[in-house]
C-alpha cells in the first residue's frame, strides 16, 4: 500500500490518494492511478515502483518537463524516495510514502507550552500600556484628565489590532492559517524594543551628550520596522525566505537613504539640528558642565572663522 500526497506551494497536504498496486502511474491521462490537473504534466509522466532493495523509486517516463527533487533545478531520470523530500513534476509537488512511514508524535492539547505565547502576549501588552501611560504622564503640563490617558491607549490598541489583523489575513490567504497570536507577539515585541531604545537614546543624549544615537534614531526605527515585517513575512509563508530578506533589506536601505537625504537638506536650509523636546531633570545630567571661559573661547574661535570667511568673500577694490 502506497500513499501519494499532492502538496501546496507551502508543502501542506492538498490531496492524498491510497494506491494498492505494485507499480503506480501518475499523469494527466485517465489510465493513471493518480490523475493530475496540471497542464505541464504529461499524459503518463512518472511511475512509482520498488527496486530490488524494496525502496520506492520514481522514474520519468520520457516527459517533456521532466522529474525533479523538490526545488532542485537538476532534472533526474530516476529518484529514490525517502518519504520526506517531495518530487516535482510540471508545477505539482508530490510526496510518496508507504504505510510504514513514521509520523510525528501527537501534540498535547492545552499543554503549558501552548499557554506560554498567550502569557507572553499579555505581558508585552501590559508593558506597552504601562510605557504609554508613563510617557503621557511625563509629557503632562496641566491637570491630569482621563482622556489624556484613554485616547492614546485606545489609539495604540486600534493601530496594533489593525496591523496584526492585516498580517493575519495574509497568513490565512497564503498559508491557510491566521497565526494571529504569533503576529501579535511580533508587533508587541517590536514596539517594546523601539520604545526602550527611544527612551534610552533621549536620556543618553541629555545625560552624556551622546547626540548621535538620538539624531539617527530614525535609522533604528526603520531597522525595527524591517525586522518586524520580515518576521511577519516568515509567518505568512516560510518559503523563499532569502528572497524576502533581500527585498526587505533593499527597501530598508532605500528608506534610510531617502530620509537621511531629506534631513541633510532640511538642516542645510534651516540650520536647526534635531533636538529632543522632552524636559528632563538636571539630576540626570552626567556630562561635566563647561566653564564660562570655554564658552567664550568657542565664541572667539567661531568669530575668527567668520571674519576669515568674510575676508575671502570681500570683492576686490577696483582702481
- The chain-level structural class is alpha+beta
Strand content: 5-15%
Cα distance, first to last residue? 110 Å
Order of strands in the sheet with most strands: 2-1-10-9-7
Helical amount? 40-55%
Q: Main β-sheet: number of strands, strand sense, barrel status? A: 5 strands, antiparallel
Order of helices and strands: EEEEEEEEEEHHHHHHH
Strands, total number: 10
Count up the helices. Answer: 7
From the alpha carbons, calculate the radius of gyration and give it in angstroms: 32 Å
How confident overall, as mean pLDDT? 85
Q: pLDDT under 50 segments (min length 5)?
A: none
The outline comes out as: elongated
Notes on the protein architecture:
The chain is of the alpha+beta class. The chain has helices spanning 112-139, 146-175, 180-207, 211-215, 217-236, 241-270, 292-313, and strands at 2-7, 13-19, 24-27, 34-35, 46-50, 56-60, 67-69, 78-80, 87-89, 92-98. It has a 5-stranded antiparallel β-sheet with strand order 2-1-10-9-7, with no helix packed on it. Strands 4-3-5-6-8 form a 5-stranded mixed β-sheet, with no helix packed on it. Helix 1 (112-139) packs parallel to helix 3.
List keywords for this structure.
alpha+beta; five-stranded mixed β-sheet; 319 residues; five-stranded antiparallel β-sheet
What is the compact description of this entry?
This protein is an alpha+beta fold. It has helices at 112-139, 146-175, 180-207, 211-215, 217-236, 241-270, 292-313, and strands spanning 2-7, 13-19, 24-27, 34-35, 46-50, 56-60, 67-69, 78-80, 87-89, 92-98.
